[in-house]
Every structure is written in structure tokens, then in C-alpha cells.
Amino acid sequence: MWRIAIIDDERQVLKGMKWAIPWDELGAEWAGEAMNGEDGLEVIRRTRPDIVITDLYMPVMSGLDMMEQLRKEGFEGKIIILSGYSDFEHARQALKFHVTDYVSKPISLPTLKSILGNVVQELEQEEEKRIRQWELEFKMTMYEPFVEKEWVRSAAVGTLDPVYRDSTRLPPSYLFWQERKHVTVGIELIRDERASCLSVSDWNLFRFAVSNIACEVAVKLFPDLEYTELHSTRALLIIHPDAGLPDNKLENRLEELGIRLIDNIGSYLKLVTRIGIGGVKDTWTRLSDSTEEAFRAMDQRILRTSSVHEVYRYKENSSSGAGKVALFPVKFSYKLATAMKTSQEAEAHQLVLEYITEMKKQEGVTPGYVQMLGSELWGIITYSLYESGFVLDELFTVDQIAKEISSLVIPDQLAGWLIDKITRISTSRQWKGSSKHRQVVEFMTSYIHENYAQELTLAELSDKVFISRNHLSIIFKNITGETFNNYLTRVRIEKARELLLERNMLVYEVAERVGYKNIPYFSTLFKKITGMNPTELIKN
After folding, report:
1. Which pLDDT score is estimated for 320?
2. Which of 66, 333, 73, 84 lies closest to 186 in space, CA to CA?
3. DSSP 252-315
4. Cα separation of 206 and 215, whole Å?
5. Res 473 pLDDT > 60
6. Nearest to 444, CA basis, from 417, 496, 484
7. What percent of the chain clears pLDDT 90, i.e. is strictly above it?
8. What is the domain extent for residue 102?
9. Is residue 324 in a domain?
10. Residue 325 covered by a domain
11. Where would you tag: which of 201, 288, 356, 523 has the fewest CB atoms within 10 A of its CB?
């Protein structure tokens, strides 16, 4: 309801105006009245009306003085002057105070309705504009953490736009990067027999668990760090060591971190991990060099630092990897994943052709290596699309893909096979028909992983993405294959499993940490998903 206040020193005018204004028709209500500018000022301060109708000539304080004071105090409501005098000088002065209209007494009923109707229409347009602006700002605030994460990943893999490769364009949270050295630690999850049996959905949950373990392990050795995922089997720790840490101690601590990562991920998740350590860089703009070095070290098995753990360190001018074929550059795999997620078919084709052309120049490209690359690249494509809510099982069966990959012998066959698959994915009705919905679901799943411990409801998320609850429920189920509540439960239980295996907390503490206050209910869910209750997991 729009609120209207009337200020006039004639009681008859006040009474007549209150009677004449079509309140219901305008969607308005009376806010208050006064018979002089001073009392009017107090009424307006107290009631904050949207519209003020005021006379100019009044005792104690004039309408002009009242308006001047109101504007000084930041009052932004509409002001209509209703005066018994046609005074050009007063009208000119009133313009300074952004008066909406200036009319003379007596005013006819049709004129009053017309003026107020126009003012209300103007208010409605301004309100609609404010709401749109608020929604935009709200969305920007909501997406800001995800935008920053994408910035970090782009900086780490070398895809950051040159415009932003400048210290003056650093996001506020990362200004400290200017004063530190930087080194990256690459994490690769090995797809052994056990890991290969995991569904894409389960693999996604394992990767979420890996991110938690990696950050908890790394922060004990290096307080300042970021974690970013690259594609289905690879992730990255970006470390900013203390400037006062000697080089030999930094080297030892990085190797210790690699060993701890392998041990913890293996112990808690039963996943086999390989670690690569890049070179230390003096400036953050060379982060991508350290990233490439970290994964080149593990791909070419350069300088293994431990006989028990697969931790590899990059060394400048090292000859230990000479003659070996590099798996694929981090920048390439990241660009391919991005092109697939954003339906850039031509870009994905070009990336594949450029990569295969370079690969053909290398020595040692055997049929087994071609097939291994096919499997890894298919994994990148599969997971990148899953992140966008699209499961490739709808187009290709696992057996079909395995059979086709086993028939690939030379790089050109691999290129043709990948380009055919990319085209079929990009032109499929399922992929094209759900691009906007995928973006919504991608935001929702990210939000769940960030806030699983809080009270999360589909209604709350529907408010955040501006889609009705029922419609959002259907979208989420169609894209992920499971309900919102099931997905949230699985994320919570996976985190609970990880916390229980650490053996630092009691069962009820773990339940509360992941968002459950009802312990029996938590135990029931835990057993339903993992096959054992929490106490059995701890004992085993």
C-alpha cells in the first residue's frame, strides 16, 4: 500500500482531500496529516509516507522550508504542492526540491485522480526497478564465492584473460598474493579396478571428500592455500609459503605434504593417489607454470622423492623424463572441459585436433597409450558434463565406450572418435534442451556442498534461484536422477563417514556437524547408505 500524508493549514481542505482521494483504486492508505510545516515535518519523519501533498503558505514553518529540511534529511518520497497562490517564484524554488507536481486550489476531482494516478504509476515503476536491481545484486552476492573460485582456477591453469593478469585486478580476498611466493601441488586420483567401478555420481562424492581431506591435511603445514578441481581425476593445491621459510625446509615440507595426502586419502577413502610438486614462483602470474610442472613431474615420473609413495618433484632441466610422452597439458584438459560444459562444439573440436597434432610429433605413442588417452579424455568429458547435470549414460553405455576405445590404435583414430562423440553430445536434444536448467542445478549442487551442515530446504533454494519449488524439484530430479533431499543426504553422510574415520569426534558430534540433531535418525540414514551403522564403521 502506498502511504499518503496531507499537510495544509485549512481543516476543510484536509477533510475534503481525505474524502476525495480514491484510496482503494490507487492501492493507497492515509499516513497522517498536519496543519503547519513544523508538525508536518514530524508526521513525515514518523510515518515515512510515499507521497506528501502540501500547501506552501502555512504558519510556523512554510511548505518550502519543510521540503528543504526533508530533502536534507534524505527523504525520497514524492511531493505534490497544492497552493492557493499562482506564484512563479515559489514554483521555481520548489523545483530545487524535486517536486513531482504543482497545482492550484481549488482542484477538481478528475485532476486529483489523474495526478495521483500518475504519481503512483511512477512509484510502481521505480519499485520494480529497485526490485530488479536488488535481485541482480543478490544474485551477484550469491554467485561471488563461485566466481572467485573460477578466477582462482583460471589463474592456476593459465586461462585467465590477460586483462586480469595484473596485480591491480586481484580480487580483494587475494591481495596478499602480491607479497608471497607460490607453488602448486597436483593431486591425481588413479582409476584402479575399484575406482573404475564407481558411478559418476559416486565419483563426484569421493572428489568432494578428497577436497575436504586435502585442505585439512595441507592447512596444518601451510596456513595460506587454495584448493581447486581441474577435471575428473585431477585437483590442485595452490600454496603460498611463508616468506621466511628457507628453501630446503620448504622442499621437505612439500614432500611431507605429498606423503600425508597419499596416506590420508588412501586410509579414509581407499583411493590410490599420485602427487606432483611444481616449481616455486616469485609472482602469482606464473602460477600456471608451476601447475604444468607439477603434473609433468607425475606424468613423466620425474624425481620420485619416496620409494614408498608416488610423490614427484619437478626439476628445471631434468633429463629423467626425456623421450617420454606427456599425458596432456593442464590448460588443454581444462579448456576441453569448459568447452564441453558450455556447448562450444567447434572449440572442443579445435582443441582435440591441436592436441592430437602435437601428440603425433612425439615418440613412443603405442596403441596402449592411445587407448589410455582415450579413456582419460573420455573421463574428462564425462565428468565435466556431469558437473553440469548431464549424465552420458543416456547417450552411450559403458560397455559401448569401452569396446570402442579398445579398437583405437593410432592418434588419428582417437581424434576422429572424440570429434564424433563431441558432435553427438552437442547436437543431442537432451543436452540442448536443458542448458539453463543445468546452470541452476550446478549452482544448487555447489551450494549444497558448501552449506550441507545448515538447514537446507528446496523452498530456500527456490527463492535463491527465482524458480518455483515444484518446478525446481522436477528440474533437479531430471538432471541429477535423484531428489534434492536424497542428494543432500548423500553429501551429508559422505562427510559424516569421513569425520568418523578420523576418530576425533563422537557419533552425536558428527551427526550435529553434518546437520542432524536426531541421532537415531542419523544412524538409520547412515546404515541405509553405507551398509553399516556409525559405531560399526568406527570398530571396523
Report:
1. 46
2. 333
3. HHHHHHHHHHHHHHHHHH---EEEEE---BSSGGGHHHHHHHHHHHHHTT-SB--SSS-EEE--
4. 14
5. yes
6. 484
7. 23
8. 2-128
9. no
10. no
11. 201
